[in-house]
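Example 9 (inverse folding). The structure is encoded as follows.
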């Protein structure tokens, strides 16, 4: 059975038919069929995958370990992947460069980490008041985002694939009550990326600190607030022991997309079946991480509700409105300073506008109806 399908696969591949249709169907960027290595069942590939996560980081790093297992199993051991946590092979934020130069063949992280190098990349992870997980998946995979993402990474010899989503994050842990826009003034919060820039423009003070230092900084009052991820990961960090309020929503990260980076020319040198296996495993990783996040956050929010000294709150409307307006100004500035960001932002905005009536009529009404 296996032999027959493999033979058929080679025959179709040689005719260029399977290649063309499979690639078109899967949206891979590889069009240079001629660069593919011919199918050799005995050839083994050993690839390294670097990640931005601490080693075996719950759900995200664990998902990468599973990804390596899936690829190994699907390829019958022909493509073996060794996963490295951030700092094990290279520093976490060098993932993009490491895969671009071929130091590692694969990487996993989120596109906003490369904002300094590629400002438009942020739209493929999360921008404040952007899209939720369902919407960003739809824009990237079916709404034109993927072609722009591939075009953006092409000069770096990289191909991006969707490979996870944090699903909604929380607004963060605060030791000061946020009752009005005035309460943001001078507030010292650990909040990275675009969220941090919006927070600064709205009057706050965005502090950068490594994950390992956040707990101590909050405990000692070096910062008044911090965001992290959601109930599951935040509970593990123990923030509920030292913060008084836990605010919703994660206006800055409503559904942060995660990415698999693959070195483009090394990918194109793989036999077609291994290319498809990598892409299929990235979709499985996407689904795995989303399901795990939703399930674990639900479970751990219950635990947080049981904490007697913790108040779980929603930001006042006027605070969210101020942050939203500030976000629009900032995104407009980013787009006007970078033509590539402008092109991506146009597509992002157009998809959001297209989707808005649909999601307002369905998801929004549905959630209100079950509450
Ligand atoms: Ca976060």
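The amino acid assigned to each position is listed next.
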């Amino acid at each position: 059975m296996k032999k027959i399908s493999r033979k058929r696969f080679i025959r179709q591949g040689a005719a260029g038919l399977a290649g063309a249709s499979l690639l078109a169907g899967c949206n891979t960027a590889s069009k240079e069929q001629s660069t593919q290595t011919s199918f050799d069942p005995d050839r083994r590939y050993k690839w390294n995958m670097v990640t931005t996560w601490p080693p075996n980081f719950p759900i995200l790093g664990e998902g990468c370990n599973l990804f390596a297992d899936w690829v190994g199993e699907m390829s019958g051991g022909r493509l073996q992947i060794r996963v490295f946590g951030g700092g094990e092979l290279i520093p976490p934020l060098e993932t993009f460069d490491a895969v671009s130069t071929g130091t590692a063949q694969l990487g996993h992280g989120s596109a906003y980490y490369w904002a300094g190098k590629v400002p438009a990349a942020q739209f493929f992870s999360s921008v404040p008041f952007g899209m939720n997980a369902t919407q960003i998946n739809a824009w990237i995979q079916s709404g034109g985002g993927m072609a722009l993402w591939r075009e953006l990474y092409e000069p770096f010899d990289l191909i991006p694939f969707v490979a996870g989503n944090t699903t909604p994050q929380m607004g963060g842990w605060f030791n000061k009550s946020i009752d009005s826009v005035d309460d943001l003034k001078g507030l010292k919060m650990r909040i990275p990326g675009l969220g941090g820039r919006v927070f600064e423009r709205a009057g706050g003070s965005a502090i950068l600190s490594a994950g390992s230092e956040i707990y101590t900084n909050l405990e000692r009052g070096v910062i008044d607030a911090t965001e992290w991820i959601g109930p599951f990961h935040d509970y593990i960090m123990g923030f509920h022991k030292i913060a008084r309020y836990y605010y919703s929503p994660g206006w800055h990260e409503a559904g942060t997309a995660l990415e698999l980076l693959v070195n483009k020319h090394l990918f194109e040198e793989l036999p077609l079946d291994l290319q498809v296996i990598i892409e299929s495993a990235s979709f499985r990783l996407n689904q795995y991480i989303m399901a795990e996040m939703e399930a674990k956050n639900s479970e751990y929010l219950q635990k947080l509700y049981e904490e007697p000294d913790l108040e779980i709150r929603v930001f006042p409307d006027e605070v969210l409105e101020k942050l939203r307006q500030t976000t629009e100004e900032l995104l407009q500035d980013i787009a006007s300073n970078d033509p590539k960001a402008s092109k991506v932002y146009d597509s992002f905005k157009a998809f959001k506008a297209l989707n808005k009536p649909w999601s307002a009529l369905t998801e929004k009404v549905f959630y209100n109806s079950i509450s």
